[in-house]
């Protein structure tokens, strides 16, 4: 089920997306230590007030130019995620191109799929995207409802999922959208975090500590910002990635780090 449609580069939003700027490095990327946190502690950055049309981000997630803390983060290219004890990070890889298209964090029995996209500097796209997600869910037999959240309106949904035996069941999901400066970050929470505020707290804390690296390239709105595997020591093979040959079928479509 497709739930994210890229706009044409000829849309009037694209003119704003071509404005370039040099992003500053946070200097805080890297594989987190065992004591890594998820933001909100002493020394953490505070994002400036959002321009009209963008999401409120008083405590993050941050643009790379807003970061001045020393929180260890895993560098995934367009996304830098804080390390949290007990979290599991999986990178989803597109068949054929082997392009990394999403990062999924499993923590405390729930998951959050994160993706970052190009967007206009001062015009949010979450409202339009949210409507498209709701329409797509409805057309496939799912249901959704808009609810208030920390970044504005969210979408809570029951997503139809086909089981191996052919039966279809509804799985809860919570769609969170954050409109930042020239980027849009989408998080899809699944499991208990989709329906329970207490269960969602660890993943929400991780989201607040996330950093988006938009880059200075001209990109059309909704273009996926490039992700990459985190760097490993020389000669090491990331868990879930085979050193040679094809991956086992069970690992096709995702890499675990």
UniProtKB/TrEMBL annotation:
Bias kind Low complexity: ranges: 16-32, 44-56, 241-257
Protein name (record): DUF3710 domain-containing protein
UniProt region (Disordered), positions on chain: 1-66, 230-257
Native organism: Quadrisphaera setariae
Positions with biased composition (Gly residues): 33-43
Pfam families assigned: DUF3710
Superkingdom of source: Bacteria
Higher taxonomy: Bacteria, Bacillati, Actinomycetota, Actinomycetes, Kineosporiales
């Amino acid at each position: 089920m497709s739930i994210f449609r890229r706009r044409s580069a000829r849309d009037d939003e694209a003119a704003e997306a071509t404005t370039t700027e040099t992003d500053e490095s946070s200097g805080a990327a890297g594989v987190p230590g065992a004591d890594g946190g998820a933001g909100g502690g002493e020394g953490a950055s505070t994002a400036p007030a959002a321009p009209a049309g963008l999401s409120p981000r008083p405590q993050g997630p941050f643009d790379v130019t807003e970061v001045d803390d020393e929180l260890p983060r895993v560098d995934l290219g367009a996304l830098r995620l804080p390390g949290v004890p007990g979290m599991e990070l999986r990178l989803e890889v597109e068949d054929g191109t082997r392009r990394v298209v999403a990062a999924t964090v499993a923590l405390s029995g729930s998951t959050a799929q994160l993706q970052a996209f190009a967007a206009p500097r001062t015009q949010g796209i979450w409202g339009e995207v949210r409507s498209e997600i709701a329409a797509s869910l409805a057309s496939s037999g799912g249901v959704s409802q808009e609810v208030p959240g920390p970044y504005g309106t969210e979408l809570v949904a029951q997503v139809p999922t086909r089981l191996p035996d052919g039966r279809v069941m509804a799985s809860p999901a919570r769609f969170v959208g954050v409109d930042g400066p020239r980027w849009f970050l989408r998080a899809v929470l699944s499991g208990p975090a989709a329906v329970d505020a207490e269960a969602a707290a660890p993943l929400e804390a991780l989201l607040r500590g996330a950093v988006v690296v938009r880059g200075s390239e001209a990109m059309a709105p909704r273009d996926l910002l490039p992700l990459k595997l985190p760097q490993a020591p020389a000669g090491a093979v990331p868990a879930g990635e085979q050193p040679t040959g094809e991956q086992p079928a069970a690992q096709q479509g995702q890499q675990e780090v």
